[in-house]
Specification:
3 domains; GTP Cyclohydrolase I, Chain A, domain 1; about 200 residues; 3-stranded antiparallel sheet; alpha+beta; 5 strands; single chain; Helicase, Ruva Protein, domain 3; Tetrahydropterin Synthase, Chain A; 8 helices
Length: about 200
């Protein structure tokens, strides 16, 4: 199949991928734009994983105030270079993350930030829920782990469903931006303000 400029442009608009990446993905998928987009997403996640250990010393502090003026948030998002920190794509990510924090009210950035005492208390509650059921201990522990993961997806920013696209987690959105910008990006902290609370 012939890959034309219109297909490449459509894929680039859909994914934010570079020209050569878009052409390559379309070639690999015989011109199927949706399959090419999925391929680019998979490659982006792989690239993001490789960049995760790189040091982040630049970035932005970004503030968002909701239209009613009663809810606001601030996020600190880090990247590797000030060049990337000044791009429109990075600013848009910071805006989206701050808006998400205002809308979803997470308590922690990632599961590793949840204090051990809180994790143990949650596990204790889940075990007590299961106490009356005649299930083997290993099954109960698997259920407890499943409930704990659900808890993390409720209270941890990176595990929450992204408010602008609930099919993705916030972590997936960040990884897509890592792939697009070619740098490690980390959400280091946030604050949320609610009038009178």
């Amino acid at each position: 199949m012939t890959i034309d400029a219109k297909m490449v442009m459509q894929l680039r608009q859909l994914t934010g991928a570079g020209l050569m990446d878009a052409k390559g993905a379309l070639s690999e998928t015989d011109g199927d734009v949706q399959a090419a987009a999925e391929l680019l997403r998979k490659k982006g996640v792989a690239k993001a994983s490789k960049k995760a250990e790189r040091e982040t010393r630049e970035g932005r502090v970004y503030a968002y105030i909701h239209a009613n003026g009663r809810v606001g948030s601030m996020v600190e998002v880090l990247c590797e270079t000030d060049f990337v920190a000044r791009t429109d794509q990075f600013a848009a990510l910071c805006h989206d993350l701050a808006m998400h924090v205002a809308a979803s009210d997470p308590l922690y950035v990632k599961p590793e930030d949840v204090p051990a005492a809180v994790v143990e208390k949650e596990k204790e509650i889940y075990r007590e829920e299961m106490a009356g059921q005649a299930k083997p201990l290993d099954i109960i522990e698997k259920i407890v782990e499943g409930k704990l993961n659900k808890y993390f997806s409720d209270v941890c920013l990176l595990r929450q469903s992204f408010v602008k696209d609930e099919d993705k987690t916030v972590e997936e959105v960040v990884k897509e931006k890592i792939a697009a910008l070619g740098e490690n990006i980390q959400v280091s902290r946030f604050s949320r303000f609610n009038l009178g609370a």
